[in-house]
Amino acid sequence: MTASPPDNARPAASAQARSAHTSAAEGVVAAMRDLLALGLSQGTSGNVSVRHGDGFLVTPSGIPAEALTADSIVPMSFSGTWDHALAPSSEWRFHRDILQQRPEIGAVVHAHPTYCTAFALCGRTIPAVHYMIAAVGGPTIRCAPYAPYGTDELSRLALIALEGRGGCLLANHGMIATGPDLPRALWLAVEMETLCRQYAVALQVGAPVILPDDEIARTVERFKSYGLQAQADGPAPR
Ligand SMILES: [Zn+2]
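Above: the input record for the complex with zinc ion. Below: its predicted structure, written as tokens.
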């Protein structure tokens, strides 16, 4: 038989839950500011979510990163409901669906950075022109076909493009990067934008050489062990 906690334990437990909530929400705010500082987002574009409790936290709709506080971050349930003064990002559906269907993912970053988006505007899948593509977990960064923003269809197509991958492009729109936590999702967003920038320049120089799939598969495995050793140093390849 399990005894109920004494009454005086409850306020402490709820204070603890509140502080865990606040620090998770502060992490979301910091990630949004980082996206802006890194030049990966502008204005009110870009949104971030993180798994928390029985649901997730997501950035609100239409608030610029500079004006966000932990209180502006919207807690949502996996059934798609919220009880908050601000509405969640219009892209909450793919944040919800990715976190719900990919249990290994703890955080999702979405933005419209210039080089990723330039390839997305052309509907291009990024091939293995650099071994760092292994950071997304496979030999390509797929581009999901176009669907209007905020729709279930966009979410469905993004999940297909993300199969076996941590990131993808969204045609005529932008990109998604994910990770076990926010720092690693943000790290992947930076790596994806860097790779797309290098690929864009390489296409002007000549014909980029594509690495074979088995070489990328070996690199994915090497990144997994590197990630374990480098945990103490912050974001590392998975
Ligand atoms: Zn977008």
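Notes for the reader.
The two ends are 42 Å apart (CA to CA).
The beta strands are 47-52, 55-58, 74-76, 107-111, 143-144, 167-170, 174-179.
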